[in-house]
Amino acid sequence: MYKVMWLLKRKHGITHEQFRDHYESSHAVMAQKYFGDLLIEYKRNYKTETWGGGVPTQPGGGTFGPCDWEYDCVAEWVMPSEEAFEKINAIFADPVIGKEFHDDEENFLDRDSVMLIKCDLRDTGTGDGHARRDMEAGNR
Predict the structure, then answer these.
(1) What pTM did the predictor assign?
(2) What is the pLDDT of residues 55-89, one digit of tens each?
(3) Could you count the other beta carbons within 10 Å of the beta carbon of residue 53?
(4) Confidence of residue 137 (pLDDT cuts 50, 70, 90)
(5) Closest CA to 72 of 21, 4, 118
(6) Nearest to residue 101, comparing CAs of 6, 14, 12, 17?
(7) What is the pLDDT of residues 86-117, one digit of tens each?
(8) What are the residue ranges of helices labelled H in 10-94?
(9) HSE-CB of 56 using CA atoms within 13 angstroms
């Protein structure tokens, strides 16, 4: 599997909620339409608060606590291979489809701040799965 993460920041003049609403109702819908078949997972993680300044389990507490972080969303794409990612890039390079994405981004995204992180995907799980089953069953 192959994973990339996108760090995304809202454009000046719109709220975090406006950013999220536009991304969900327009941009994510376009992504599903044009290359959803190339994605295994497409998650959007919206910031609710950020903490930093050390390690939280550090003796004495360190300076770990609330802090500013400029990004509003971490988007995750998991694909079957790097070739799938290259196919998506080719879709973005299409003059018609690429323009549609670019034009939509002008409505909500600070394009100059976008960061892409290519990842070495590892998943060892969290145990035997009981916690997930309990959450899905509404027991948590």
Answers:
(1) 0.80
(2) 766 666 567 788 888 999 999 999 999 999 999 99
(3) 12
(4) low
(5) 21
(6) 6
(7) 999 999 999 999 999 999 999 999 999 999 99
(8) 16-22, 28-35, 82-93
(9) 5
> Distance (Å, rounded) from C-alpha 70 to C-alpha 19?
13
Strand order in the sheet with 2-8: 41-46, 73-79, 2-8, 115-119
Q: Which CATH entry fits the domain spanning 2-56+72-122: 3.40.190.10, 3.30.70.100, 3.90.950.20, 1.10.340.30? A: 3.30.70.100
**Number of Cβ within a 10 Å radius of residue 1:** 14
Rounded Cα distance between 19 and 46, Å, is 10
**Closest alpha carbon to 120 in 32, 3, 11, 7:** 3
- 91 CB-near residues (< 8 Å, 6+ apart): 34, 35, 97, 98
